[in-house]
DNA sequence: ATTAGCATGTAAACAGTTACATGATTGA
DNA sequence: TCAATCATGTAACTGTTTACATGCTAAT
């Protein structure tokens, strides 16, 4: 149920096509949501059928037409109603931690390599969130003011990745000592 | 695909029934995996059909029979093979952060209440993980030694919840200043 | 020539949630 | 008597991933 509101939220900030949306998910909300382009298109069709989105086709030279979606009155009302509802914290599902939990099947060398891989992935995420943060801090102060709560989500993403990185580094040092 | 290996991992440590398993998920791996009892039973049937699990029925007085599952040779081999494979980091999906991202639809008072609710949930999680940790630290040192990597996952859970709590508290102070 | 990016979609498989169903025991 | 715990299951639905499909442009 949350994907639809993630879609409505981004289109509320700025209208766009399914393709646009996919990229904006990757660039601006990947620290708390992700979705494939198939999910986008399906959700956009559904929301359009339900009258929460308007759609205007925009012809382009040498490229397929773009279908630009934007919120209708009802769409904005639906988003506003949902935003005010309590939401339970998401359950975590982290396959890598299952592997560590079954870690007595690993040699120290294998464990080291696995942790090292995760460390690199999380360092890369941290790096990209920090870059995003720099971009936000250099943007129009009036926009920053308007979306300051949205910005807090990025700060949480940064803190979460720092936590992962620190944990993985500590674990690697331990594995090295053995 | 990961649920099956989570199930195999727990049954590898100690055989048990679907019901047992459900409780053990809640008590010992809830910081990185969760599943409903329906998922357990379905997965157990599948794994049994595929020959990765043995099943022996254990009659009980005044209670329904228990079906005790344990790993077969092939089950152990399948787990060991999977544990050694690289796994990509899980994508995050946190509905509450969508709500904050659309936070310009909230009054300060509504935002405060929402953050407060999350803070309480994460404090409760932190508390329960710390309790789990105490139990681990008071258990048999030989067992602690054997499962020290598994224990690392709990330490990450604790750090992650501390990060959430600290973030939410900072955000609340900010909202109060407004 | 090949790869990457733009742009949209269908179909099938897999995973997860919610609701319903049964039936016994134990404790408040 | 009512709720909780033990113990297992079916059915329907919703959500997510993976594979396949088309076709154009721009850069290497």
From TrEMBL, chains A, B:
Domain Transcription regulator PadR N-terminal: 7-80
Superkingdom as given in the UniProt entry: Bacteria
UniProt cross-references to Gene3D superfamilies, sorted A to Z: 6.10.140.190, Winged helix-like DNA-binding domain superfamily/Winged helix DNA-binding domain (1.10.10.10)
Pfam families named among the record's database cross-references: PadR, Vir_act_alpha_C
InterPro entries per record: Tscrpt_reg_PadR_C, Tscrpt_reg_PadR_N, WH-like_DNA-bd_sf, WH_DNA-bd_sf
Residue ranges of domain Transcription regulator PadR C-terminal in the record: 92-176
Transmembrane segments: none
UniProt xrefs under PANTHER family: TRANSCRIPTIONAL REGULATOR YQJI, TRANSCRIPTIONAL REGULATORY PROTEIN
Protein name as annotated: Transcriptional regulator, PadR family
Species name: Microbulbifer marinus
């Amino acid at each position: 149920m949350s994907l639809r509101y993630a879609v409505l939220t981004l289109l509320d900030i700025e209208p766009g096509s399914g393709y646009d949306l996919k990229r904006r998910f990757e660039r601006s909300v990947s620290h708390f949501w992700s979705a494939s382009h198939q999910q986008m298109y399906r959700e956009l069709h559904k929301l359009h059928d339900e009258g929460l989105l308007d759609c205007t086709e925009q012809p382009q030279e040498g490229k397929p037409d773009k279908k630009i979606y934007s919120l209708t009155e009802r769409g904005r009302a639906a988003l506003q109603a949902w935003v005010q509802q309590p939401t339970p914290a998401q359950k975590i599902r982290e396959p890598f931690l299952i592997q560590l939990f079954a870690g007595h099947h690993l040699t120290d060398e294998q464990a080291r390599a696995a942790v090292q891989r995760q460390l690199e992935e999380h360092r890369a995420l941290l790096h990209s969130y920090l870059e995003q943060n720099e971009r936000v801090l250099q943007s129009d102060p009036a926009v920053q003011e308007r979306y300051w709560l949205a910005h807090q989500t990025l700060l949480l993403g940064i803190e979460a990745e720092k936590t992962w990185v620190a944990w993985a580094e500590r674990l690697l040092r331990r594995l090295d000592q053995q």
